[in-house]
């Protein structure tokens, strides 16, 4: 167990890791992740609000709201006083994967295959020879004409993408490119027909939800690896799982918010569509967060446009998205002075070209929080001769104007079908974010 956990906290650390593995296992899609986060908030006393309803907010309120069923914002308002500042943590619910095409059925060599499109910057090679399930959201029409959105999780090995034997491709290990259109359609059913998917979807809906007499109108479904999350290593130092980027941050942000004392104004936002640019109604570039904050300011803030600006400028945002850890087999891929280690604490991510939102003021705030929480902290800057990814941090800072920094748990194999992070870093970042949520003053 974590060396950073105090002896009296060992059981708490183990329970947190157990909750994490369960959350990862039960969240094979952004819609499932959002539903699972909503359930945790409801169990903790947060009430659900609908954007289409009128809101009646008062100091001390705790609520959450979703958009597209794949993004969620939870808010804790300070008790007995108007809200003048907010401690905000941001993450994203989506991960790179293979999404079903609308007309997915195709047959070849006597097999039904399902055509896919690549969602986000997926690392494709690890998808071959895996037991694949299928999960996401469907919209169905009932016999009475009612249209309903339904989550589906086919948690059984219904598909596989078989590799071509090396005897038939002697150059397979020479770094050949993969064609997602022609080489990555999963195999589903021997002797199947192009239109069998409709029949299969209805059978899966009946098995999971008992739904009969419905018509599938449309769907957003993706394949996922059925291998469950696990603790790996002789000392269980590692977490291996699909979708660590970025469900790990979603989980840690949620845990920290529920661990906090609740005295301060707190917000957790987990947006969909970060992996494809965030430009959507429920993505970080969309108006979701601003819409919620304007309603908060209108009812429990100053209630004016100037008051909204004052609220934003008095608040801080910590964007949480995993960082690239130093890989023992590829140490030359990191700047020699900026190679974060697993289990050595959260990573402050900095980029001079604003691919990350961190500046010296927000970084100083986070370093101070980590010191208060007795948590080690690291820094990542990419090599000067390499490109750099980005997060919701710069987008949120641009859209809202809120002072922001980017941090994350270090991990290996980002965007693979199975990623790896340090088990001790879950506690590290949770403690740092809890200290942030509990801080009476924001610097």
Automatic annotation (TrEMBL):
Domain of life: Bacteria
Pfam families: Peptidase_M18
Keywords: Aminopeptidase, Hydrolase, Metal-binding, Metalloprotease, Protease, Zinc
Cofactor(s) annotated in UniProt: Zn(2+)
EC number: 3.4.11.-
Broad enzyme group: hydrolase
GO MF terms, alphabetically ordered: aminopeptidase activity
InterPro entries cross-referenced by the UniProt entry: Peptidase_M18, Peptidase_M18_dom2
Family: Belongs to the peptidase M18 family.
Protein name: M18 family aminopeptidase
Organism field: Halomonas litopenaei
């Amino acid at each position: 167990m974590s060396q950073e956990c105090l002896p009296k906290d060992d059981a708490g650390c183990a329970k947190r890791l157990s909750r994490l593995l369960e959350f990862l296992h039960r969240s094979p899609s952004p819609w499932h992740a959002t539903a699972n986060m909503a359930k945790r908030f409801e169990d903790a006393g947060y009430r659900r609000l609908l954007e289409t309803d009128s809101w009646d907010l008062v100091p001390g309120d705790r609520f959450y709201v979703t958009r597209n069923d794949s993004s969620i914002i939870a808010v804790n308002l300070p008790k007995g006083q108007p809200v003048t500042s907010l401690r905000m943590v941001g993450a994203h619910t989506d991960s790179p994967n293979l999404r079903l095409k609308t007309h997915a059925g195709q047959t070849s060599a006597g097999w039904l295959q399902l055509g896919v499109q690549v969602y986000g910057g997926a690392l494709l090679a690890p998808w071959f020879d895996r037991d694949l399930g299928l999960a996401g959201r469907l919209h169905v029409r009932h016999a009475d004409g009612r249209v309903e959105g339904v989550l589906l999780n086919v948690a059984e090995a219904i598909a596989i993408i078989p590799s071509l034997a090396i005897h038939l491709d002697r150059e397979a290990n020479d770094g050949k490119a993969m064609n997602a259109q022609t080489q990555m359609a999963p195999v589903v059913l021997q002797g199947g027909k192009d239109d069998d998917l409709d029949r299969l979807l209805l059978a899966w809906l009946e098995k999971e939800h008992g739904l009969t007499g419905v018509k599938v109108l449309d769907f957003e479904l993706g394949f996922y690896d059925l291998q469950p999350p696990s603790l790996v290593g002789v000392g269980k130092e590692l977490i291996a799982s699909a979708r660590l980027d970025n469900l790990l941050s979603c989980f840690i942000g949620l845990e920290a918010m529920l661990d906090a004392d609740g005295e301060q104004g707190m917000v957790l936002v987990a947006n969909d569509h970060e992996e494809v640019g965030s430009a959507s109604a429920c993505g970080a570039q969309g108006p979701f967060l601003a819409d919620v904050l304007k309603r908060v300011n209108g009812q429990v803030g100053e209630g004016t446009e100037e008051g909204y600006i004052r609220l934003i400028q008095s608040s801080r945002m910590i964007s949480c998205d995993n960082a690239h850890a130093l890989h023992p087999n590829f140490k030359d891929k990191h700047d020699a002075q900026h190679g974060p280690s697993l289990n050595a604490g959260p990573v402050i991510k900095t980029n001079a070209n604003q691919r990350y939102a961190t500046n010296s003021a927000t970084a100083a705030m986070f370093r101070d929080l980590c010191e208060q929480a007795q948590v080690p902290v690291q820094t990542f800057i990419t090599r000067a001769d390499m490109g750099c990814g980005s997060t919701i941090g710069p987008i949120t800072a641009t859209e809202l104007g809120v002072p922001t920094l980017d941090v994350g748990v270090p991990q290996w194999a980002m965007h693979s079908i199975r990623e790896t992070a340090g088990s001790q870093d879950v506690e590290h970042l949770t403690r740092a974010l809890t200290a942030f949520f509990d801080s009476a003053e924001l610097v």
